[in-house]
Amino acid sequence: MTDPAGLAPPGGVTVAVVDDHPTTRAGTRLLLTEAGYPVVAEAGDLAGARNILTARTTPSVLVLDLNLPDGHALQHLPALRTLAPAVPILVLSAQDDTPVIRAALAAGAAGFILKDAPAPELAAAVAEVAAGGHYVQPHLATRLARSPYPAGVPLTEREQTAIRLWAEGYTNTQVAQTLMVSVRTVESIRASLRNRLGLTDRAQIAAYARTHLR
Question: Which parts of the sequence carry 4-aspartylphosphate (predicted)?
Fold first, then answer.
């Protein structure tokens, strides 16, 4: 594992990459470096990921593969997030199964992108999560929005109403006024729906409303 301590450029976004295949790590490092995001730490397993997140200096973003030799990262995402809450985790995986994507987001991943994504999209994902946002590749997010919601975990009436209002173009402030709640509450609803359903923008919210809410 490469130690990130002392390597972060002032004010810059830095990245750590965790993948058990050295060739994949090298390719990811090259793509990110060319995009202006220096890779300051690398590891090939969950133990290395933990070391990165508990180092004296942590990266801005952790890019994480799911299938690692010492465990499936999906089961360890909540614990990894606890180690360094300020470091968003961007999952970079070959797995494109809808349940896996949804579970990763629910477990705390800030984004999900496939390993065959073009370099500009990987760079955009890193930039978005580094800025505190969330990123799911558009075609994956659309699939999440159109797929059946997990059985046994229904949306509340408030969540359904919020989705309909956002789909109609309402702002968070307008949704809050309509629901008679605070804007902070509406933002929490939006974050919950993003994590559970993968609804990252208004177009995906509208698609979900058309497909699931009549």
Answer: 65
DSSP string, 91-148: EEES---HHHHHHHHHTT-SEEEETTS-HHHHHHHHHHHHTT--EE-HHHHHHHHHSP
**Closest among 141, 116, 122 to 37, alpha carbons compared:** 122
The token duo for 195 is 């994590």
Q: What would the DSSP string read from start to end of 98-113?
A: HHHHHHHHHTT-SEEE
Q: What is the pTM of this model?
A: 0.70
Tokens 């949804």: give the residue. Answer: 102
Burial of 47 (0-12, 13-18, 19+ CB in 10 A): middle
Please give the class, per CATH, of domain 150-212: mainly alpha
CA dist 214 and 211 (Å) reads 8
Query: Which tens digit of pLDDT belongs to each residue from 51-81?
Result: 999 999 999 999 999 999 998 898 899 899 9
pLDDT digits (tens, 9 = 90+) for 88-118: 999 999 988 887 888 888 888 999 999 999 9
